[in-house]
Amino acid sequence: MGACQKESVSQRVSVTKRKCHKESVSQRESVTKRKCHKEKESQRVSVTKRKSHKEKESQRERVTKRKCHKEKESQRVSVTKRKSHKESVSQRERVTKSQCHKEKESQRERVTKRKSHKEKVSQRERVTKSQCHKEKESQRVSVTKRKCHKEKVSQRERVTKSQCHKEKESQRVSVTKRKSHKESVSQRERVTKRKSHKEKESQRESVTKRKCHKEKESQRAQARCHRFGQSKAVKVYRLITRNYGREMLHKASLKLGLDRAVLQSMSGNNNGPVQQFSKKEIEDLLRKGAYAAIMDENDEGNRFC
């Protein structure tokens, strides 16, 4: 009977050791997987940062500083979270190791007590003690099963939390990419608008320069007719385009607008009081001319055009 009981106790001790070893191995695998996942996430974040940095090099320094500040704050928060997670995992491993060590010591003490008690007690007491021992072992097995179940539930909760964290990080990365793409598109549109505006202005300047040059050449040619020694008759041909009349009327209306806005408002009529204009009327006279201001007042601009 004593030999059988020793063998059963040794088997139970070996079973508990195997369980502890399996739990430690599973925890190490989970830790390695988390480390690999963290390294992959850090690599992805670094790739996204490089891309965003290349796209945003043309932006202003203030925007880059703000974004760098935000990224540093997010990195600090992630680092603190990872450190707290690692510390919690290490604490749990220590607690489990201490529990296993305590259980082993308690088992050794029980074995020594049983040996001394077996020598002093008869066979009847041995039977009763074996029955009590079986009941206690069944209770311990139930307690260990409950602990294992709780640990599995806690691991599942951790896995769900890690998945939620991954989804949130992916959403943040997508939002940052969209914002950077929108900003790059807006900058390109602004650059194209500026280029088109500059080209239009350069074309207008070139056209005005050509017109002035042609007018000067025509005036010089007309002035040559009045030189000393010019005895022959000279004919001057002037080309009039389709919109020449409108240009002449526009120039004349601008001159009349200046006369009306400056000279008449300063001098006034001899018989009546001085004519006072508002700021809007003066701006219309200087920009559009007298004829355009009169047509706007009478609502006859569309008829003329």
UniProtKB/TrEMBL annotation:
Sequence segments annotated as region (Disordered): 1-224
InterPro entries: CHD (IPR051493), P-loop_NTPase (IPR027417)
Entry-linked Gene3D superfamilies: P-loop containing nucleotide triphosphate hydrolases
Lineage top rank: taxon: Eukaryota
Residue intervals passing through the bilayer: none
Biased composition, class Basic and acidic residues, residue ranges: 22-43, 86-110, 119-139, 151-171, 198-219
The protein's name: Uncharacterized protein
Protein source organism: Pogonophryne albipinna
Organism ancestry: Eukaryota, Metazoa, Chordata, Craniata, Vertebrata
